[in-house]
Q: What sequence folds into this?
């Protein structure tokens, strides 16, 4: 009986929750809705814990794999089962997703308490859980793609939760479409996989790859890897498809925490790590992965510098951190990437939820320029936020320090240039995070006039309206804070006296790059350089400290200074503030021309004038011919006789000619 | 005369008999509506016999019925295989819903409406079941009249233009098919599909030179291409859809267009495999142009129905592409996509009709923010949109994925086809979500929209089956594929070729299914 | 000398003549104000008796093949071909009489002579189908023509009615002169006017240019009667002006008879195929194209159907062309032509009956626009007209479709691919103008002064019912009729070979 | 020789009369020209040995039918015809048509050597004895009995037609 | 000896003159007369052929043509009278209500 873990229950439970709430939630009280949502999420979490604990002891141990007795797809030689797969990688993922997910559900009960469409929110949230768990538990690419697309849908729905706001609706749509662009590549990658391997099943593919050497040039594996990478850039908000994520902050804050920080956006990293067998045999593709990751990390960090919306800062920070993870994958340090993914899930969720608590406290205000001095007013929030900020900044021994440092170290071994990028990014991260911290919690309270148009329209009995969130919201924060503090302990590198448990845990699930490749050689090197690693850890701490000091100086000591500085370098500032005009560029160069061509060329000219014109023209021409032919019918008898006579003459002459020339 | 041998006849002609019954009933709209609903439900019930007793392992057409009809060579010959069975079921499934959807919206000349609807049903079923080319043509043409009348009598402002255009366009094209059918007959002295297929495959007929076959292929192709409609023969479709009454649109999109793709698979490919292969390149190019072009034009439509119509052009492009990849997966996917499109576009048209009943317009700018007054409607609409977008676990994805993967495997330009066609997943998301946003999201722009009533029970009742099907077909595709797969491999004579190039890899792994079980 | 059986061989003609005379005699006995419906009924009984007489002939023919020997000194031959056309033409006349009963009441006309003329004209038509001697054919042709001239001008107070008559008359006589000239030439070339002897002579001596010219001239005359291009010019004007029931008759009856003559003259005399094949080919193509395109812009329903009848003559000629070059043992071209005649008669008579009913007094409502909303005002009438129109378009399950199908099957079997394609494309174009009428009936709201037609008289209803049953019957269960047509065609063939006429050597037109 | 002269003489009158028919603008003059044509044709029939036909030609055609024409012309008081230009087609299409027709037929009759020979002058010698008219009568009432009887119907129709069309009775 | 072709040529000339007259004359009665001219031309052919072939049936044919001509004349003139009554003209160019 214990043979079958019934892994399918893990995603299915939240789906049931979603179905119950979606179908009947409108008639439920909020209390019932939240009970349903929480119950199923918790059950899923429990089930996941049980599975992760039991799986290694069943049969041959991990990876554990089971199919449902019926396939999802049967066509010709292609068979796609509902197959679930649990190895070390998915174990981590499933725990993070269900665990963090459950916490965020709890938080949301408080946060959304006064929102309309309460049942809808939880239905969507549970639906998201279902898809995300499908994604991480799938045993083949296609089922993974189900989750992949599904989380996109949930994201679309949740971003557009306040659908009456044009900006929210736009953001949701943008997220979905941009993700679809990535999915396009993912699909193509899958087609090539089918073509090459005849299967989409992970074990089948990786088994076939076992003895395949790394590709020297740009072979099929490289193309597949690049297509997968492009798919990942959509989901994990990498250049060039990161543009949707900042806009996605239109969604309610728990959504931002769950989907756009902790879980969904890491799907790309999970997918790359999952495909490590392919990527590791495609060194060129790996290089591209690393470069994209690095670029995204620093690029997003710079954009984060100038944002004033608290959630947007976090959003760019997420993009930047995701870049880190991708970069880690790019240097074949998949374990480091996943490690950071996990810690990031803790502290970024915490940051978002904390930010949500802040926003909640100030009545929906999201602009940091209108915050300040909240330290005393919402102390619990302040403290958890502080932990999170220090974690992300990489202050030891918090979780972020270990994971980030691991990435930087691996990068150094692989490509010092990328390390520089990562290093600068670390400094920038520290700076903008502390900027946020100072702007929000220190200085004067700069709230705007009261009771302005608030998305969270609930009144407040405090004089200034600022109030601490209820405990149902704070409790998850505390849990996450604890996780942020201690979560890094599973990955303390040997150089710092730890055992890097997570690294070893993940090792069986991840195919290390083959030794003959550059990444492979770097890996070898990394194993034997303990003392250098220690030095680099010091450098990381230093740059974080520098960021802190800069932020302290500009936003605490001399709060008027930033304005002066930005005035001096106005052009650059505007460039950064406006996110390098990337959105505008996409709009002008891609979206607008496409729409223009569609409307003014394809529809109005090609369709209406050319094709339909030809069709109607044929009709018109027939009519015109008919009109001309009618003129034969002049009504005059003599004319008629003339036609007959001429016809007769022609007939007779023709026949005589035929008769003579027999 | 047991049920087994007469079931196809019953399924085909029960609606027509019902139509006759309706004709003699008194002009009491209530009675007529109920009668039409019961008849169509009865037809659906009978049609369920097909999957129940269908043998997925049989190679041949099943439940065949043959009797001499006209002269020595024209037979009343019906038969069903995995392809036609589901299309028949799609038809019988959608007609009761079409009746429901027309319950209130048709209030003038009710009797005529339902009579036409039921006659149309018979003709459509006949098209799918005919195994005699003459009979096929008879049913093919017979669909024209009821549909044109439905559009012309119950449509909107430019209904006459649309009806005439629909009629003439299809008529002109089918004439070429008739010429081809007759020519085949004069050479083979039979109209029997299987016999002709065997004869052509055997290659003993001297008259069937490659040139002649090419002409025959084109004769059939043009008729089907217009019906599909394949770019650039598609311009009748938006007009027809925009003007048609809801039930007309539903059946037009869901079933009538499938007659074209069904014909392409059954006749163009089935009878002339060599010519089909020979011409596949440009047909695939047209299909891909259709996919992208239809989507881009849909993207800028200001009219809800027109947008859905152009989306049909795009979706049907997938079907044609799937058929002409000559891969098992591609053709399987194409057939599945036919069903999917029937379900999802049928649902979209029904939903469009519901809002038209309330607002009397399809102009997108007249909507906006409707999710607030009509949450149920918005939810149904969303599911339909997602099914059309091709979201996994809904029906649309399965077909699309198979078609595209089939395209990728097809030689020699497969990856190019696949790449271009796969952009379709981006476009469809773009135009459908844009449309959905225009209708449901954003602030309420028009005050009169605030009080719009949400869906009533009847409307929900007519949508639920479609939603359920969209989900079931998305999750449990093997239920359908079990019958489709052998039928397709039967119809694609050399389907093995295309897939065999990859079977080396597959055989290495063993089938993944086997590996895991 | 003249035996009883000889009288039986002309029994239908005798019956018709007797009824015609009876009608003529009774008419003056009725008062000037009395309705002539009773006379119409008498005439109807006349046509029914004719059908009975023909069926009796058929029984005789079945009993003894010798019944089909030429009679009256080689003047007539009763065979299944002639019986088919007798039945068809008598049926057409009967339907037209039935439809006229109401028409004359509506028009406030007294029509004693009218029925007489129809009966006498029918004598001419049926005689044309069984005559095998050019003199008799000529006289029979004149009987049918002259009676239709008069019938066309029956509304003699109406300017356009009379104009139609005079145009028809003058051009008809003009064409007859050509036909006659042809007869003279064939007489000069072969020394005989008997189809049988001509065939024999042509077999023995071959055909010189004179025969070709003769065939050309006869083709002109007959081409005029069947309204084949370019001898079709009279059709629209005459159909527009003539009374609608008369158009029903003259667009089908004399046409059928003329086709019968064409079949006899072209196929039974052995006039070389290579002479007339291309003529028929071009004429067929021209007729279809001119007819259909001409009809596109017509607003007058009668005129539109006139153009359509030109086009249908074209389709029929396709069958002729097909027969001309098909193998000697194949008769499907001819049987297709025969079947087409019947199907066309059913649907066209039906359509004109509706038109004559709908036209109202003085035929005011003949514009397409007048039909707006007919589907709403009188659904049954509209439905019936729709059946006829669909059949004219050639939609399956109607006689028109199967007729076209047989024609084009024959054509394609004879390898006339291009002619078939021209024909099929034409039939698609034609769909437009027929459809226009359907569209107007069902999709437009009633407008203008055209009021709901009064209740359809039982006689008209019966006629419509018969016509629509015939149309649908021919479209769904054509077996019997097709068999008859085939039988007739074979008979003609046998007759041609029996009379030792050399069947024209079939040849492929491409080789010429 | 005499035959040739007579033929040419009457042929000339015929053609002249026919041309005159075309040229004259008053219908009466045209009618009279037609009578001239018919009478000279009767003479030609005699030359061809068709006495009976020649006689009937004068009596029925020139006599009865043409009188009917003249009568109607008088009845309707038709004046000289007006030279309206109703039809360009008549000249543009009809002119070449007639020319072609005439040319074709004339070429045919002069070049069809196989079947066309000379004409026997004078009365046709019957093979069965008796004169020409006898023979015609025998043909008419035996071989052509049926057509002959059927013409009665034709005449009946003509009578009815004349009554229907020309009567003043209001219908 | 007069060659048969002379008669036939004369017949052809008369026939074509008849056709020309039909095309050129405006008066309906004259047009009708031109038809009579054509019939006469045909009759000449018949008689000439009959003479040439020695077959009297040609004569009988002429006889029937005359009967037909007479019948046509009766009907035709009646129609012409009817036309005159409704249109007050015999000019064929003016009898053109029905057209196109």
A:
């Amino acid at each position: 009986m214990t043979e079958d873990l019934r892994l399918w229950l893990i995603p299915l439970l939240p789906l049931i929750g979603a179905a119950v709430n979606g179908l009947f939630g409108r008639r439920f009280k909020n209390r019932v809705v939240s009970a349903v949502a929480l119950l199923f999420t918790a059950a899923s979490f429990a089930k996941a814990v049980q599975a992760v604990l039991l799986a290694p002891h069943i049969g041959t141990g991990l990876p554990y794999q089971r199919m449902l007795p019926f396939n999802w797809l049967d066509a010709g030689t292609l068979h796609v089962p509902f197959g679930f797969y649990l190895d070390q990688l998915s174990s981590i993922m499933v725990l993070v997703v269900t665990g963090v997910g459950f916490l965020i559900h709890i938080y949301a009960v408080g946060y959304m308490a006064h929102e309309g469409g309460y049942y809808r929110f939880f239905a969507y949230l549970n639906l998201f859980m279902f898809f995300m768990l499908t994604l991480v538990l799938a045993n083949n690419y296609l089922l993974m793609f189900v989750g992949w697309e599904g989380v996109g849908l949930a994201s679309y729905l949740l971003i557009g939760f306040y659908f009456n706001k044009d900006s929210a609706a736009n953001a949701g749509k943008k997220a979905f479409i941009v993700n679809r662009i990535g999915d396009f590549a993912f699909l193509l990658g899958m087609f090539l996989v089918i073509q090459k391997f005849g299967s989409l099943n992970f074990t089948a593919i990786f088994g076939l790859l076992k003895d395949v050497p790394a590709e020297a040039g740009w072979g099929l594996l490289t193309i597949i890897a690049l297509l997968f990478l492009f798919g990942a850039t959509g989901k994990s908000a990498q250049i060039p498809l990161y543009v949707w994520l900042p806009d996605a902050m239109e969604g309610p804050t728990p959504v931002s925490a769950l989907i756009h920080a902790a879980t969904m956006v890491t799907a790309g990293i999970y997918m790359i790590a999952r495909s490590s067998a392919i990527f590791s045999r495609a060194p060129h593709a790996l290089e591209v992965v690393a470069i994209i990751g690095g670029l995204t990390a620093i690029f997003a960090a710079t954009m984060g510098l100038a944002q004033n919306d608290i959630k947007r800062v976090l959003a760019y920070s997420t993009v930047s951190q995701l870049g880190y993870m991708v970069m880690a994958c790019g240097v074949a340090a998949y374990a480091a990437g996943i490690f950071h993914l996990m810690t990031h899930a803790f502290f970024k969720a915490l940051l978002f939820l904390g930010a949500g608590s802040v926003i909640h406290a100030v009545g929906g205000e999201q602009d940091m320029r209108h915050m300040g001095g909240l330290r005393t007013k919402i102390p619990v929030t302040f403290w958890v936020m502080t932990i999170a900020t220090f974690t992300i900044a990489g202050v030891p021994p918090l979780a972020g320090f270990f994971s980030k440092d691991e990435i930087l170290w691996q990068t150094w071994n692989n490509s010092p240039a990328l390390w520089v990028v990562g290093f600068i990014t670390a400094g920038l991260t520290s700076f903008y995070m502390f900027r946020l911290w100072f702007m929000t919690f220190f200085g004067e309270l700069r709230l705007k006039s009261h009771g302005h148009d608030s998305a969270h329209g609930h009144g407040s009995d405090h004089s200034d309206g600022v109030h601490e969130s209820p405990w149902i919201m704070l409790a998850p924060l505390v849990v996450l804070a604890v996780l942020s503090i201690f979560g890094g302990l599973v990955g303390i590198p040997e150089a710092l006296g730890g055992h890097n448990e997570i690294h070893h845990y993940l090792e069986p699930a991840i195919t290390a790059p083959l030794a003959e490749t550059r990444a492979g050689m770097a890996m070898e090197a990394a194993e034997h350089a303990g003392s250098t690693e220690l030095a680099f850890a010091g450098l990381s701490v230093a740059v974080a400290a520098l960021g802190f000091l800069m932020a302290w100086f500009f936003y605490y000591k001399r709060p008027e200074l930033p304005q002066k500085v930005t005035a001096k370098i106005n052009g650059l500032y505007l460039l950064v503030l406006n996110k390098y005009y990337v959105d505008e560029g996409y709009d002008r160069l891609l979206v607008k021309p496409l729409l223009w061509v569609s409307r003014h060329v394809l529809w109005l000219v090609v369709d209406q004038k050319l094709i339909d014109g030809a069709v109607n023209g044929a009709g018109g021409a027939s009519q015109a011919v008919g009109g001309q032919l009618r003129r034969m019918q002049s009504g005059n008898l003599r004319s008629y006789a003339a036609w007959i006579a001429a016809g007769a003459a022609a007939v007779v002459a023709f026949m005589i000619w035929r008769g003579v020339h027999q | 005369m047991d049920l087994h041998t007469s079931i196809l006849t019953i399924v085909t002609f029960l609606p027509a008999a019902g139509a006759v019954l309706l004709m003699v009933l008194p002009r009491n709209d209530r009675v007529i509506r109920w009668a039409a609903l019961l008849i169509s439900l009865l037809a659906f019930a009978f049609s369920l016999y097909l999957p129940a007793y269908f043998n997925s392992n049989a190679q041949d057409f099943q439940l065949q019925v043959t009797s001499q009809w006209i002269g020595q060579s024209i037979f009343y010959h019906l038969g069903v295989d995995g392809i036609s069975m589901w299309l028949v079921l799609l038809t019988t499934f959608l007609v009761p819903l079409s009746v429901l959807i027309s319950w209130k919206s048709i209030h003038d000349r009710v009797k005529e409406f339902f009579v036409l609807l039921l006659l149309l049903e018979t003709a459509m079923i006949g098209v799918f079941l005919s195994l005699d080319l003459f009979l096929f043509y008879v049913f093919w043409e017979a669909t024209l009249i009821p549909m044109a009348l439905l559009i012309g009598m119950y449509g909107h402002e430019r209904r006459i233009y649309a009806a005439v255009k629909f009629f003439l366009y299809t008529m002109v094209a089918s004439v070429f098919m008739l010429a081809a059918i007759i020519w085949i007959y004069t050479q083979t002295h039979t109209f029997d599909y299987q016999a002709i297929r065997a004869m052509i495959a055997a290659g003993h007929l001297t008259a069937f030179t490659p040139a002649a076959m090419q002409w025959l292929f084109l004769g059939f192709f043009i008729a089907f291409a217009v019906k599909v409609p394949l770019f650039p023969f598609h311009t009748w479709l938006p007009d027809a859809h925009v003007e048609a009454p809801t039930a007309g649109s539903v059946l037009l999109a869901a079933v009538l267009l499938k007659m074209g793709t069904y014909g392409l698979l059954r006749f163009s490919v089935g009878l002339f495999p060599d010519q089909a292969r020979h011409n596949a390149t440009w047909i695939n190019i047209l299909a891909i142009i259709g996919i992208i072009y239809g989507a881009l034009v849909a993207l800028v439509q200001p009219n809800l129905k027109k947008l859905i119509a152009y989306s049909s052009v795009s979706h049907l492009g997938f079907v044609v592409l799937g058929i002409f990849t000559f891969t098992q997966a591609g053709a399987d996917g194409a057939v599945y996509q036919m069903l999917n499109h029937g379900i999802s576009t049928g649902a979209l048209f029904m939903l469009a009709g519901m809002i038209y009943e309330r607002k009397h317009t399809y102009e997108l700018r007249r909507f906006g923010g409707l999710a607030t007054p009509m949450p149920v409607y918005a939810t149904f609409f969303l599911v339909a949109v997602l099914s059309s977008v091709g979201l996994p676990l809904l029906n649309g994805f399965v077909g699309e994925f198979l078609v595209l993967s089939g395209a990728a495997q097809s030689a020699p330009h497969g990856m190019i086809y696949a790449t271009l066609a796969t952009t379709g997943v981006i476009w469809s998301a773009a135009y459908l979500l844009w449309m959905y946003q225009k209708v449901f999201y954003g602030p309420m722009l028009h005050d009169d929209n605030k009080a719009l009533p949400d869906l009533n029970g009847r409307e929900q009742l007519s949508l639920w089956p479609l939603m359920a099907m969209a989900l079931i077909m998305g999750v449990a595709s093997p239920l359908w594929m079990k019958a489709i797969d052998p039928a397709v491999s039967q119809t694609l004579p050399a389907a093995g070729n295309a897939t065999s190039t990859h079977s080396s890899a597959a055989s290495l792994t063993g089938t993944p299914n086997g590996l895991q079980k | 000398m003249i035996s009883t059986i000889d009288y039986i061989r002309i029994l239908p003609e005798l019956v018709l003549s007797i009824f015609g005379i009876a009608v003529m005699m009774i008419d003056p006995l009725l008062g000037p104000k009395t309705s002539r419906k009773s006379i119409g009924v008498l005439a109807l009984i006349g046509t029914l008796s004719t059908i009975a007489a023909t069926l009796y002939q058929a029984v005789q023919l079945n009993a003894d093949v010798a019944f089909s020997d030429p009679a009256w000194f080689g003047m007539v031959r009763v065979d299944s071909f002639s019986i088919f056309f007798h039945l068809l033409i008598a049926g057409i006349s009967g339907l037209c009489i039935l439809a006229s009963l109401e028409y004359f009441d509506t028009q406030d006309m007294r029509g004693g002579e009218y029925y007489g003329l129809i009966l006498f004209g029918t004598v001419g038509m049926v005689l044309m189908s069984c005559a095998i001697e050019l003199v008799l054919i000529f006289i029979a042709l004149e009987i049918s023509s002259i009676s239709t001239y008069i019938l066309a001008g029956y509304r003699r107070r109406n300017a356009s009615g009379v104009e139609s008559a005079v145009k028809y008359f003058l051009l008809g006589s003009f064409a007859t002169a050509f036909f006659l000239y042809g007869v003279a030439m064939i007489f000069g070339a072969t020394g005989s006017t008997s189809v049988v002897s001509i065939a024999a002579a042509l077999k023995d001596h071959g055909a010189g240019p004179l025969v070709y010219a003769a065939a050309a001239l006869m083709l002109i005359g007959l081409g005029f009667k069947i309204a084949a291009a370019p001898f079709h010019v009279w059709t629209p004007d005459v159909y527009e002006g003539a009374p609608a029931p008369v158009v029903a008759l003259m667009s089908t009856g004399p046409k059928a008879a003329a086709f019968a003559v064409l079949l006899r003259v072209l196929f039974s005399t052995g006039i070389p195929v290579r002479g007339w094949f291309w003529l028929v080919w071009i004429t067929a193509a021209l007729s279809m194209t001119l007819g259909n395109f001409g009809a596109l812009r017509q607003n007058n329903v009668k005129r539109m159907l006139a153009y359509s009848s030109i086009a249908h003559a074209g389709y029929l000629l396709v069958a002729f062309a097909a027969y001309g070059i098909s193998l000697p043992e194949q008769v499907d071209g001819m049987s297709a032509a025969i079947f087409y005649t019947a199907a066309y008669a059913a649907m066209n008579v039906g359509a004109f009956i509706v038109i004559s009913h709908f036209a109202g007094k003085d035929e005011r409502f003949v514009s397409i626009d007048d039909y707006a909303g007919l589907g709403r005002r009188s659904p049954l009438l509209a439905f019936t007209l729709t059946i006829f129109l669909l059949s004219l378009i050639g939609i399956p399950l109607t006689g028109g479709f199967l007729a076209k199908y047989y024609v084009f099957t024959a054509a394609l079997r004879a390898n006339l691919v291009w002619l078939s394609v021209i024909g099929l494309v034409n039939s698609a174009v034609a769909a437009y103008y027929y459809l226009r009428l359907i569209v107007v009936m069902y999709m437009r709201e009633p407008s203008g002064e055209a009021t709901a037609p009064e209740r359809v008289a039982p006689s008209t209803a019966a006629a419509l019912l018969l016509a629509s049953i015939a149309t649908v019957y021919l479209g769904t269960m054509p077996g019997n009729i097709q068999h008859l047509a085939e039988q007739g065609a074979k008979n003609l063939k046998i007759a041609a070979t029996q009379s030792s006429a050399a069947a024209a050597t079939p040849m492929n037109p491409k080789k010429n | 020789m005499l035959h040739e002269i007579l033929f040419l003489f009457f042929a000339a009158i015929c053609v002249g009369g026919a041309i005159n028919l075309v040229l004259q603008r008053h219908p009466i003059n045209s009618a009279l020209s037609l009578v001239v044509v018919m009478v000279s044709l009767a003479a030609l029939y005699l030359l061809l040995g068709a006495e009976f036909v020649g006689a009937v030609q004068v009596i029925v055609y020139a006599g009865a039918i043409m009188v009917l024409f003249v009568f109607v012309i008088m009845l309707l008081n038709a004046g000289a015809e007006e030279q309206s230009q109703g039809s360009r087609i008549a000249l543009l299409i009809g002119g070449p048509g007639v020319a072609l027709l005439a040319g074709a037929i004339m070429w045919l009759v002069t070049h069809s050597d196989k079947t066309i020979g000379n004409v026997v002058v004078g009365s046709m010698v019957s093979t069965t004895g008796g004169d020409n008219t006898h023979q015609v009568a025998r043909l008419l009432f035996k071989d052509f009995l049926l057509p002959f009887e059927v013409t009665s119907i034709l005449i009946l129709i003509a009578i009815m037609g004349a009554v229907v069309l020309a009567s003043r009775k209001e219908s | 000896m007069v060659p048969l072709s002379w008669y036939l040529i004369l017949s052809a000339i008369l026939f074509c003159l008849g056709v020309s007259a039909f095309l050129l004359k405006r008066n309906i009665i004259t047009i009708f007369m031109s038809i009579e001219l054509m019939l006469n031309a045909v009759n000449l052919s018949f008689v000439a052929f009959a003479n040439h072939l020695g077959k009297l049936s040609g004569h009988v044919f002429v006889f029937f043509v005359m009967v037909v001509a007479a019948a046509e004349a009766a009907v035709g003139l009646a129609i012409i009278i009817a036309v005159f009554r409704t249109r007050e003209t015999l000019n064929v160019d003016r009898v053109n209500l029905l057209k196109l």
Summary: The CA atoms of residues 363 and 434 of chain B lie 14 Å apart. Chain B touches chain C at residues 70-71, 109, 112, 134, 137-139, 141-142, 144-145, 148-149, 152-153, 159-160, 163-164, 167-168, 171-172, 175-176, 178-179, 182-183, 185-186 (CB under 8 Å). Residues 328-359 of chain B form the longest helix (32 residues). The two ends of chain B are 45 Å apart (CA to CA).
